[in-house]
Specification:
Radius of gyration: 45 Å
Number of strands: 4
Order of helices and strands: HHHHHHHEEHHHEEHH
Helix content: 40-55%
Number of helices: 12
Strand order of the largest sheet: 1-2
Length: 272
């Protein structure tokens, strides 16, 4: 009876020891797992992968080159975008690299330039050569707006001041994006208002010869009250009314011709 109880006790103790051991092992594993999860984060794993990739690239250069070549062939658009972004963000590095390459390889640079000029189609320059000095031979019968070279395209109005600009002009160059606002022009002074609005007998004659009338003021002098500020004046400033001064076409008696009058008198020395 004693032996049976002893054997039963030993078996129970063995079962307890096995269960206790399994519990301890499970606890230790759970602790180790938590420590590993804390230790190996995503940042550390990414760093380890980069270091492994760097070591693999250094130790297997040919394999890396072959893989890069295949990737470039299979993904040309991605490669172009990456190269474009790198050139934009590292413009100075790219310029320095190009300069160093040209200095070290002058023959290669010359050969590349020669090949470029050979492959460049000469017919692209033909339309421009045909327009050489054509501005000196203007013909009013020719409709230049139909010429693709002369026609610059439609003009787009500014969204703030409605000024007409070409498509390549910056958006805020005219009024600084609405920050500059000029007052509206008032009515024309008399007799200019009557001449422009057909309220005068000479309106038709004036409008027909307006350009000639404007050219008469080419030989006038500018008159205004100049503003002086200190000894150094980098800009020209005036205040008040601006005048156009013009004298008589003929000089008075006992007076030497000057300014506009010399162009009618014909003094050869003063004309020069």
């Amino acid at each position: 009876m004693y032996q049976i109880c002893l054997s039963q006790l030993n078996s129970d103790t063995a079962l307890l020891s096995d269960e206790f051991t399994s519990v301890i092992e499970t606890f230790i594993r759970s602790k180790r797992g938590k420590k590993r999860r804390k230790r190996f984060s995503n940042t550390i794993r990414t760093k380890q992968l980069r270091e492994a990739a760097s070591k693999c690239t250094k130790s297997h250069r040919e394999v890396h080159r072959e893989a890069s070549r295949k990737y470039d062939e299979n993904h040309p658009e991605i490669v172009k975008q990456v190269v474009r972004k790198y050139k934009q963000t590292h413009s100075e590095i790219v310029k320095n690299a190009e300069k160093v390459y040209k200095v070290k390889n002058p023959d290669v640079n010359r050969a590349a330039t020669a090949r470029y000029h050979e492959k460049r189609p000469k017919n692209k320059l033909m339309p421009w050569t045909s327009k050489h000095l054509s501005g000196l031979n203007y013909d009013s019968k020719i409709n230049y707006s139909n010429d693709k070279i002369v026609n610059l395209g439609p003009r787009i109005p500014c969204s703030w001041c409605h000024a007409l600009k070409w498509k390549d002009e910056t958006q805020g160059m005219c009024c600084s994006s609405g920050k500059v606002q000029l007052p509206k022009l008032g009515s024309y002074p008399e007799p200019l208002h009557s001449l422009l609005t057909h309220q005068d007998q000479l309106s038709e004659h004036f409008l027909k010869n307006a350009r000639k009338c404007n050219e008469c003021f080419q030989m006038i002098s500018f008159g205004a009250k100049e503003v002086r500020e200190g000894n150094f004046m980098p800009t020209f400033k005036v205040q008040g009314q601006v005048y156009h001064r013009i004298g008589s076409l003929m000089s008075e008696a006992n007076q030497k011709p000057s300014f506009l009058q010399i162009y009618f008198v014909g003094d050869e020395h003063q004309e020069k």
